[in-house]
Amino acid sequence: MNATRKSSLGVLVVLGWLAGTASGALSDAVAVSVSVGGDIDAYTDSDDDGISDLWEFNHFYNLGTVNRYSDFDGDSFPDLSECLAGTDPRDPQSFLRIASIGVGPDGVIRVIWDSTTNAVPAPRSYDIYAAPSVNALASGGTRVELDVPSSGDSTHADLSMGSATMRFYRVHLHREP
User: 38, 92, 124, 177: which has the fewest Cβ within 10 Å?
Assistant: First the structure.
């Protein structure tokens, strides 16, 4: 059966930054959320588990090994999320995550996350959200960067803190319609 699925799955990666440190170094870990979501135009999904048959056959050579809730490699990133993010469901080191966050001498924050351009069914792009607190970020936050295209094994966004003394970031992966 061909289906269009909406999903918002992901992991919470804990990171943060306090403005005003002399070295520009990160403060104690605080919070950044990485989420996976959007309209997913799955190829044929004959077992109706939300994962395309093509992806299941490419990674497991059958339809019975994984489903939307399973986590084959035990990395706490469900196999459906691995499918959507284009990560390897057999490698516990392969999942959508923030690789680093830092501040340059000009005060620009660079957020770098693992990504892929080799995702089925289509290339990925990302939106970045910011908020002054974890609770505000969990409620949505403000989109500060839109449609950052995946640029290989890692992707980055350069962001301004503005006048904020603390900022929390969320990287949201979506597929182009």
Answer: 177
Rounded Cα gap, residues 161 and 103, in angstroms? 10
Domain parsing of the chain, residue ranges: 3-175
Q: Hey, what are 86's tokens?
A: 């284009």
The percent helix, strand, coil of the chain (3-state, each to 5) is 10, 40, 50
**pLDDT score recorded for residue 167:** 84
pLDDT in tens, 50-71: 888 888 888 998 889 999 999 9
* Cβ contact 130:168 at 8 Å: yes
Contacts of 132 (CB under 8 A, 6+ apart): 164, 166, 167, 168
Rounded Cα–Cα distance for residues 11 and 97 (Å): 8
Residue keyed to tokens 């804990």 = 14
